[in-house]
Design a protein that fits this description.
Helix content: 40-55%
CATH superfamily of the largest domain: Winged helix-like DNA-binding domain superfamily/Winged helix DNA-binding domain
Shape: elongated
GO molecular function: iron-sulfur cluster binding; metal ion binding
Distance between the termini: 30 Å
Order of helices and strands: HHHHHEEHHHEHEHEHEEHHEHEEHEH
Pfam families: Fer4_10
Radius of gyration: 21 Å
Number of strands: 11
InterPro entries: 4Fe4S_Fe-S-bd, 4Fe4S_Fe_S_CS
CATH topology of the largest domain: Arc Repressor Mutant, subunit A
Largest sheet: 5 strands, antiparallel
Strand content: 5-15%
Strand order of the largest sheet: 5-3-4-7-6
Number of domains: 3
Organism: Desulfotignum phosphitoxidans DSM 13687
Protein name: 4Fe-4S ferredoxin iron-sulfur binding domain-containing protein
Structural class: alpha+beta
CATH architecture of the largest domain: Orthogonal Bundle
């Protein structure tokens, strides 16, 4: 029984998101809580490409009608991706993060949360090892100025209003922290999911469908609460997460590093007009990366820590804070689609 979970862990580690081994074996404890041995064995026969049940059945060596009910059940539990189409359903392996974990928002237990929080540092260290990240940071709308060299895919409102279907789902990070008594009190309903992803969430009863206007209201409320906008790292994102630096497993772990700006894929950084700065500390208090410090009555930005979210600009009443473009050599051009993003990460990890 132990072997199938070790095999599945290696299988998931060969996905772009990774699933690195640990000395404690916490990653195996997580898998045992999510997968039965039979489900784990079946997941070993899936790849990160949608396939009909007949193709999977050939690899498994069992009739399609035998494994189909289990695949459907695994899809309903968010352990694999089940795509329903008029011309036939398909099934696909999910990576652990972003993927399996986010679909567990309604299946969390105290033990699963405990084990996941123990495992996150290992997971983040593996993800930080490559240049292309799964998420990127775009500035909040209120922080954008006419001098910025900003592209359409860096405009939050453009990203939202260009979507044909929008769903808002609970943030699993804030939910899990709330469940263990460490919640921050910021809004939980804050993960925007688009297009095909929205239909999949809807089919599983996670979240609710909303209009573009409702989505923008959530984005503005998030900015007011100091949440960082993180779309999936592609020109055409599948989702936008509104993240806090206390509960978000990605931001909170990046914050612990000495140079968050080197990890986060972003094209902007904050700048201070010292003639306008009054040293009020509003920017210092809202900065999610501790990138701003007020010294001798003036705000100063640590460029190694600033991720260009623009939250400091939204709270400055004296027009002293603004966003500036990174140097050309530091600019980030996201892949066109999420598939391209994962292919790029896989190449950087040497999986090809």
């Amino acid at each position: 029984m132990e072997k199938v979970y070790k095999d599945l862990a290696r299988h998931l580690d060969n996905t772009p998101g990774g699933f690195p081994p640990t000395e404690s074996g916490v990653e195996l404890r997580i898998l045992k809580q999510l997968f039965t041995p039979e489900q784990a064995q079946l997941a070993l026969n899936l790849v990160m490409m949608p396939e009909p049940v007949e193709a999977i059945a050939l690899r498994v060596g069992k009739p399609a009608e035998t494994i189909l009910p289990m695949l459907i059940e695994m899809g309903e539990k968010g352990l694999i991706l089940h795509i329903r189409k008029p011309d036939g359903d398909t099934f696909m392996l999910l990576q652990f993060v972003v993927g399996i974990w986010e679909y567990q928002v309604d299946r969390l237990t105290q033990q699963l949360i405990k084990d996941f929080n123990e495992y996150v540092p290992y997971l983040m260290k593996a993800q930080e090892a490559h240049k292309t990240q799964q998420l990127r940071v775009v500035p909040v709308e209120k922080s954008i100025n006419t001098q910025l060299n900003i592209m359409d895919h860096e405009h939050l409102e453009n990203l939202v209003r260009s979507q044909s279907k929008i769903l808002v789902a609970p943030c699993i990070c804030r939910r899990e922290h709330t469940m263990v008594g460490k919640g921050c009190g910021k809004m939980e309903e804050s993960c925007l999911v688009f297009g095909g992803g929205a239909y999949i969430y809807e089919s599983r009863g996670i979240g609710r469908t909303i209009t573009a206007d409702e989505a923008m209201d959530i984005v503005r409320k998030g900015a007011a609460q100091g949440l960082v906008a993180q779309p999936s790292n592609s020109v055409k994102p599948m989702n936008i997460c509104l993240c806090c630096d206390c509960c978000c497993q990605i931001l909170s772990n990046i914050k612990k590093t000495p140079s968050p700006a080197r990890i986060v894929n972003s094209n902007f950084q904050a700048s201070v007009d010292t003639d306008q700065c009054t040293g009020c500390q509003a920017c210092e208090e809202i900065c999610p990366m501790d990138a701003i410090a007020v010294t001798d009555g003036l705000a100063q930005v640590n460029k190694e820590r600033c991720i260009g979210c623009g939250l400091c600009v939204t709270v400055c009443e004296f027009d002293a804070m603004s966003l500036a473009d990174k140097q050309e050599m530091e600019r980030w051009d996201p892949p066109r689609t999420l598939v391209d993003t994962y292919m790029k990460i896989a190449q950087e990890k040497g999986l090809f």
